Amino acid sequence: MSGQKPPFSKVLIVGAGPSGLLLALFLAQHDIPSIVLEAWPWLDTRLRATQYGVPATRVFRRAGLLPDFRAASIPKFPAICWRRVADGEKLVEIDMSVVQDEEDRMTVLQLGQMIQIMYRHCMDPEKGKGLIDIRFNHRVTATGQDEEKAWVDVDIGKEDEEKRHERIHADYLVGCDGASSAVRRSLFGKEWPGQTWDCRFVVQNVYYDGFEKHGWDGGNYCIDPEHWGLIARRGHGGLWRVTYGDPTVGLTDEEYLARRPWHLKAMLPGSPEPDQYRIEQTNLYNIHNRCVDSFKVGRILLAADAAHVCNPMGGYGCMTACLDVDGLADCFIGYYEGKASEKILDTYAEVRRDIFLKYVDARSVKNLNRVWKSNPWTVLEEDKFFGIIQELNKDRQALKDFLLKISSIEYDFKQHYDISTPEKAKGTANSHRNGVEVAVEA
Ligand SMILES: Cc1cc2nc3c(=O)[nH]c(=O)nc-3n(C[C@H](O)[C@H](O)[C@H](O)COP(=O)(O)OP(=O)(O)OC[C@H]3O[C@@H](n4cnc5c(N)ncnc54)[C@H](O)[C@@H]3O)c2cc1C
Question: Where are the transmembrane segments (predicted)?
Answer without folding.
Answer: none
